[in-house]
Amino acid sequence: MKHVIGLLATLAGLAAATGCDGRAATPAETTGRPAAAPGVVEVPPDSPMLAQLKRDIVKLVDLPTDEVVAPGKIEANPNRVSKVVLPVSGRITSVLVKTGDAVEEDQPLLTIASPDADSAMSAYLSAQATVTQAEAALGKAQADLDRASDLFEHNAVAKKDVLNAESALTQAKAAVQQAHASREQTVRRLSVLGLTASESRQQVVVRSPLAGKVLELTVVPGEYRNDTSASVMTIADLATVWVTSQVPESYIRFVQIRERVEISLVAYPGEVFEGRVSRIADVVDPQTRTVKVQAEMDNRAGRFRPEMYGSIHHIEAVAKTVVVPAGAVVENNDGRSIVFVETSPGRFEQRQVSVGKRAGDVVRVVNGVTPGDTVVVDGVMLLKGMLRPSARGPREPGGVPNAAAALGCGSESAPAASQENARRSAIASGAGVPASLKK
Q1: Alpha carbon of 339 to those of 263, 328, 354, 402, 416: distances in Å?
Q2: What local confidence, expressed as pLDDT, does residue 343 receive?
Q3: pTM of the full structure
């Protein structure tokens, strides 16, 4: 019901501003003031229509006058992408993450039941036993040397006995060093398998090599994997991403490493992002005659995703440019671009403008308005419908009648329609209906 009342109020406002002969009602007909000039619409200050007209200011901004635009798409930074492989063959017992999850460096990703883990642990235990034996032999060799040296001082043994004890001690020290080196080898093997020397389990834990997001996952629990060279998971740090584009070879001379570029994305229309050229390919594609250019973007906010489409804008020159919001520009019936400028409160003047290329949510304007002018950006079609026919241009066949005609004006029943409009306006405003208008 509220929508109906709101519509009636709007139509009533239009009826008050539009005559029943298919033309805009002049101030002389409604208020006794002089008639508005062609191309001018005057809206009474108490008209509900004013609330529907959104205005904005004509601005003078810096915009590129010459630029290279190349289509591209977002890719993960290849320097921050890791393909996770299994350290051993075995059966996947659990997968601890899913695609899209954020992971930290060294976080467990999955576990594998593998006989290789048991053999690695056995090798470690054997190496540890060898270390223990070698250290015991070293202690004995040291004691034998001490005893032989003491006996030699008391002329109880020959010099060769001392020399033999010293040789045995040297060999014992070498054996201890070798035993420790062998044990360290087995410890490193355990570490690769996700195990420690204090554990005795057969479950191998695969951990994340870096912090990032899981982009791809190709294993499920229960699956047996024998190929330790195949990737089972892709993890990428997306704090920075690359936009890869193909720049025509005729423009590549303008692009330099570390140069700032503007990037637009299909996913975020009207927004412009900043990047810096990080790589320019050394060869030209012989098929397309283009050169691959990659620009790096900050993505700590996480808005950019690999495979998003967009384009790189390399700006060659910038100049001060007059712009208006794109919604302010419409075409009249003969195809000319126009805007409505509010020259004083409630007075809107139609201006013909010459427009240039669109830049995001604004349009370049060559002439017709000046910075600081107030233009209508929402409700433009309402004002266009209230123009005198001569100001709107030739009426198109099958065109939509103006707002006054939509209320039933222009027919033989115009007086009755005017009374009905007045009655509806009174209802919409919440006022009582005069007795003269009651049915």
Answers
A1: 30, 6, 10, 18, 35
A2: 94
A3: 0.49
